Amino acid sequence: MNQEQSSAAAVEAACTTKYRTQSAVSRELHERAVRVMPGGNTRHSIVLAPYPIYVTSGKGCCVTDVEGEERIDFLNNFTSLILGHADRRVTAAVQQRAALGTAFTMPTEAQVELAELLVSRVSYIDQIRFCNSGSEAVMLAIKAARAFTGKHKIAKFEGAYHGIYDYAQVSDNATADDWGDLDSPASVIEAGAPPSQAADVVVMPWNNFDVCRKQIEANQDQLSAVLVDPLPLGIGLIAPKPGFLEMLREETFRRGILMIADQVLTFRLAYHGAMDQHGISPDLTALAKIIGGGFPVGAVAGSARVMSVFDHTGDIKVHHGGTFNANPVTMTAGLETMRQMTPAAYERLEAMGNYIRQQLARMLHDRRTPAQICGRGSLFLAHLTGQELIDFRALSGYSRSKPIYQDLNHEMLANGIVTSPRGIFGCISTPMAEAELDAFVEALHRSLDVLSY
Ligand SMILES: Cc1ncc(COP(=O)(O)O)c(C=O)c1O
């Protein structure tokens, strides 16, 4: 069997009859894709075995696939489309902007307007710079922290995903085979990373006050920053224990270490962002996703003192170029989106989030399926376990013993719902209402029935 034949055989084996009959066109596209892209894919975070469903269009909270099948989209391009797809006002603004030119080597007013809007919403952000992805935003924040403090290490949490900058990737995919002792977790690096990187990243266990305090103290002379996402999806949206983020802020502040808040995903939780909900002011913040209104975006933001490391009129310490930084299409889409995200819009999303979390809990309780529903605001994640979940290790322990998520995802697709192949995760967009939330819960109920779970 050659490589192509064996990959086709693997697809066949992994494919339920139902999935196959509903997605023949996607399958053909995937077969073309694997010839020209490794794995047939250009984005690992959306891999779905045996092949993905290809999409043609989206409107509001629905997407239509290449077969003409319409589904409710609970992924929203991995949480970035807070207004759903093809919002009328964003589309009109973008069309108008595109007709005037899409990229220049001169700035446009839109970048000033979006910067002003974001600065006015978040009390601890005095200044901001735009880039093209959340990964870049995290990278720039880390570089800024190193330049500002003159120290080189960073600390981050085991299992937390912060994009694809080498240092931020450390231990985001650790396993029981390599993660070491809980008291001093190993820094697990990818094959593409230099070993020196492991030495420059301190890995800490989520929600573990003692180990975090010890690690921060032991490394204080080299630590430039603690990188923290206030509700990390990589750690299953397991909430920080009361006082945990506050402890990190206190420890970093008194030891001359910066706190970098990765709010790339969690900026969608509230009008002033997720950190504000905890009453915490980080020194630097990485933003992306919703602030681009559906276009590639990222931003690093923070206090004027720290952000001065980027200032070319002073003692510039971090060089920041980028051909498409603050391109006017993204800035226009982001501005229109963020203007629509008023406090009332966030409150409505929060109410819908509370509703679906309650409905999921009730349905799973009635089925006698042990479960915990994590998330807040417009994010939810149902873990099918009764075990206490406090950190990445607890999460990995249970999710590895539950390989049903892939099949569940196929069933959810068959029941008209787009959700994640790696868990029962969803995010809510503004075009949704109770009917869509009920549809999710009902689809999950039916899918679990089909799988006799
Ligand atoms: C918390 C967090 N940080 C950073 C990133 C990276 O953002 P991007 O995919 O725009 O590079 C992501 C992406 O999902 C994320 O969820």
Which keywords apply here?
453 residues, alpha/beta, 4-stranded mixed sheet, 41% helix, 14% strand, binds pyridoxal-5'-phosphate
Question: Can you walk me through this structure?
Answer:
With 453 residues, the protein is of the alpha/beta class. It has 18 helices and 14 strands. The chain has helices spanning 3-14, 17-22, 24-36, 76-79, 88-99, 109-121, 134-149, 166-169, 196-199, 209-218, 244-254, 274-277, 304-307, 328-340, 343-366, 392-400, 405-414, 434-450, and strands at 55-59, 62-65, 70-73, 127-131, 153-157, 201-204, 223-228, 258-262, 284-288, 298-302, 372-374, 379-383, 417-418, 424-427. The chain has a 7-stranded mixed sheet with strand order 4-10-9-8-7-5-6, sandwiched between helices. Strands 1-2-3-13 form a 4-stranded mixed sheet. A hairpin with a 4-residue loop joins β2 and β3 (70-73). The longest helix is centred in the last third of the chain and has 24 residues, at 343-366. The model has no long low-confidence stretch (mean pLDDT 94). Bound molecules: pyridoxal-5'-phosphate. Pyridoxal-5'-phosphate is lined by residues 78, 133-135, 138, 161-163, 229, 233, 262, 264-265, 288, 298.
Radius of gyration: 22 Å
Overall 3D form: globular
DSSP helix count? Answer: 18
Helix % is 40-55%
The assembly state of the depicted protein chains is single chain
How much strand? 5-15%
Question: What does the average pLDDT come to?
Answer: 94
Largest sheet: 7 strands, mixed
Strand order of the largest sheet: 4-10-9-8-7-5-6
Bound molecules: pyridoxal-5'-phosphate
Helix-strand makeup class = alpha/beta
